[in-house]
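Researcher: Last one for today. Full complex below.
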Amino acid sequence: MDHAVYIAWAYAGAAVFIAGLSGWVVWQARRVAGRLKALEDRGVRRRSAGSAP
Amino acid sequence: MTAAAAARKPNWFSRLAHPGRFLAWSRPVVAPLAALTAIVFAVGLWFAFFNSPEDYQMGDMVRVMYIHVPNAWLSQFVYATMTAAALGTLVWRHPLADVAGKAAAPLGAAFTALALYTGALWGRPTWGTFWEWDGRMTSTLVLLLIYLGIIALWRAFDDQLRAGRIVAIVTLVGALNIPVIKFSVDWWNTLHQPASVFTAEGPKLAPSILTPLMVMMAAFTLLFATLQIVSMRTEILRRRAETMARQAAAGEGG
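Model: Here's the assembly. Have a good evening.
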């Protein structure tokens, strides 16, 4: 394959980048879910919780 | 139904605007969408490496196009999404609009950075240089800087409603760069080749190269959709957590 090094760097870099981006998005989601759960465990409720679907 | 009752009944746009409803319908969508993304990526990679011929000019470097072009497309598509969200914030005051804009900005920045990275790797053996200050590359670099500026602006304000309005205005101003990126290859004599996929006459590529390209574009677009939905859910829940924390602090304080 011509220029295999460039092709490998492009795909490896993209894979690392996408894995990092996806991991960051999932980490943020888990962090916020953990924060919400901690608040709910302390008995904190939203004032509008009764009307929310 | 009377005219007054019909006027009071929320339309689909208003119903969609409710963050609680978004959380409800999006929750079961994420896992199937992520699975579909993985499947389409697998098919696209199979096409890219095992079912795509060498290009008569680029040789095997055409395989880099299968990740470069989708990221270049997404860099502009995500910004177009943010522009629509900015209009939603300023014109319709849609409660999900600024959430969508804020969630999309880091994703757009990542796709733009990846487009520049893969473009540089494609350029070195093809053009003999990683970088050239030509119209397409420079305007794409400007797009990355706009994304980073918008991310910084979101983080500079505690009041997210105020931040949303300011960011929306900046986003609309920054949208002027999108036609510059698109038409830079027509307006100026650039090193970057003219458009070959999104043209008025249709794609100019051979089907054997267009097929893997389209499958990879679908895969990356699905990836964006998945990450966007998860990020929007996170942003809604983060605002909910902040409101609850403020309520708790006010209760403890007073």
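Chain A has a mean pLDDT of 87. The two ends of chain A are 57 Å apart (CA to CA).
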